[in-house]
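Researcher: Good morning. I'm working through a list of sequences from a screen, and I'd like to move beyond sequence-only analysis. For each chain I'm collecting a predicted structure so we can compare shapes side by side. This is the next one on the list. No need for commentary yet; just the structure.
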Amino acid sequence: MARVEAALGGQDGLCLFRAPGRVNLMGDHTDYNEGFVLPMAIDRDCLVGVRARADGRVVVRSLDVRPGEGVVDVAADGTDEPAAVTPAWGRYVAGVVRTLGEHGRHGAGADAVLSSSVPLGSGLSSSAALEVACALALCAVAGLELPTHDLAEACQRAEQIATGVPCGIMDQLVSVGGRPDAALLLDCRSLEAEPVPLPDTVAVLAVHSGLPRALADSAYAERREACEAAAARLGIRSLRDASPEDVADDPFARHVVAENERVLETAEAIRSDELDRLGPLFAASHASLRDDYRVSTPELDALVDALVGAGALGARLTGAGFGGCVVALMRAGDAEQVAADAERRYRDATGLEPRTFPCRAAAAAGPVSPTRE
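Model: Good morning. Structure tokens for this chain:
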């Protein structure tokens, strides 16, 4: 926080906002099918400091990138084309500027600085954290207040415009709605969120495989198109409405229908503190993502095997796949030993260096008090 404040020349007229990343405990590739997901906001976030400027420009500096790539300067009225902005991280900022304009934000200029502790390309939603933090900052200098769902939808649309990836709304929803000590059971049709308290006997680890994930270069869009085509063939609004019998011969659709049910079963197992139910659910989810949806990699498979072999209650890839992170649940007292053993096993199997991120459920995005001088 002090770095952000210093980069903006102190606290005079400064507002600070944070938005968390997330780890998804269960339910991948279900959000864009209007299904169920069970993510939690995590204690890693994007911090944005902002103050108004009078020249009709939004200028954002990142403290986390190489010299020469750290400044984005776009028109505050959203007329600059987001997909053409450089450096590439600035496309998310430009997307937010444009979509907030569509929600009534006038062209108020802003001078902002950001820094993020959410690892990039990990599947822990660094992009949504950036979008939400920037959106809150830009709303503040323009005097605009948006309902939570509108803010999430504006940030989802910003990412779609910026990257061309037809992402679902899970990441933005959990960033704006996170709860301390709880996951969120999200209905991606109604956008309703139900907190699912996490018992203090359970620890959550996200472990990075050493392979970065880039959705724009993946088959993400192809998967979404296939799901929409399957729903159209069945004459239903989305795969949320399909039965297992409807999709028995369609691997992509079969994954979505089964994964929705696993989300509900996982939420119930956590509520009931029936931790022994989690291992089979996580194993089935990862197998479905690997075999039916085909978004895993040999490295992610090896990392799941390493975590389960080291004593995790369950492990599965998290996020869209194609690289990034695995999520694992374990008994709290075992977390340190399981992590160390799994890292060794994975290193020996692949030659890659994993990175482990212990995760605690965090509060929703919002303002932050400046540091005391």
